[in-house]
Amino acid sequence: MTTSLFISDLHLDPGRPQGIQLFDDFICQKAQAADQLFILGDLFEYWLGDDASRHCGYQSIAESLATLSSHNTEVYLMHGNRDFLLGEGFTSHFAGQLLPDPSKITLGENNVLLMHGDSLCTDDVAHQQFREQSRNPEWQKAILAKSILEREELARQLRIQSMQGNAEKAEAIMDVNPSAVKSMMEEQQVRLLIHGHTHRTAIHNFQLNGIAVHRIVLGDWYKKGNYLIHDENGFRLMSFPDDAVLSTLSNSAIEAERLSAEAHPA
Description:
There is one protein chain. By secondary structure, the chain is of the alpha/beta class. It has one domain: Purple Acid Phosphatase, chain A, domain 2 (4-Layer Sandwich), CATH 3.60.21. It has helices at about 15-30, 60-70, 90, 125-135, 135-145, 150-170, 180-190, 250-265, and strands at about 5, 35-40, 75-80, 95-100, 105, 110-115, 190-195, 200-210, 210-215, 225-230, 235-240, 245-250. Strands 4-3-2-1-10-11-12 form a seven-stranded mixed β-sheet. Strand 10 (about 225-230) and strand 11 (about 235-240) form a beta hairpin. Helix 1 (about 15-30) packs parallel to helix 2. The longest helix is centred in the middle third of the chain and has 21 residues, at about 150-170. The model has no long low-confidence stretch (mean pLDDT about 90).
């Protein structure tokens, strides 16, 4: 069976070299042995454009990912709310593939929905307004037309605004909206959703139209690494480098639920 790894919200920053070293160790010790690595947004603390990667000290990260090609590990990236300007100029360094948000993949017998997760935080109106603006191709084109120094200043201002805004928001507002989650899973016709963004590592099991469904939330990498592995043993949320098991979801449980859902459609 294919071994797949999922990570999100690493927020890699040259100003925090210990985070980059932790990522490099993960690539060497874990990702090289996997068939697929999915990075579900916010790999970087900020991204000024593919043309600025060397200037910002991010080239070593591309080189680290490039080692996976020689080990036949496929790399998939999704935009987050920090690295929405990331493009094929970066992924071409390691034969990576950009995924739209959301994306549906197949793991074993199951369809799985992958998202960064911020679009599900519908109670955070200010963030949704910025998300719509930052995904606008004309807005992105205008930003990329600025000098790298101008983009650096804009990124600095946006980070300050984000920190100030988050400090004033209730915790619940920055989490996903349950109705938005259910609507998305119904629309995409999936029983398993994997996302990041909220940094609230967990496996949530709930009912949707009388059918058991699951939502797996990936953790951040500020203090230690967090990743999800899927193989013949099912899903396991893990921490790195200690490899502590945080939560599990077995393949057999999902398979039994899938067969039950097929026998008793909603």
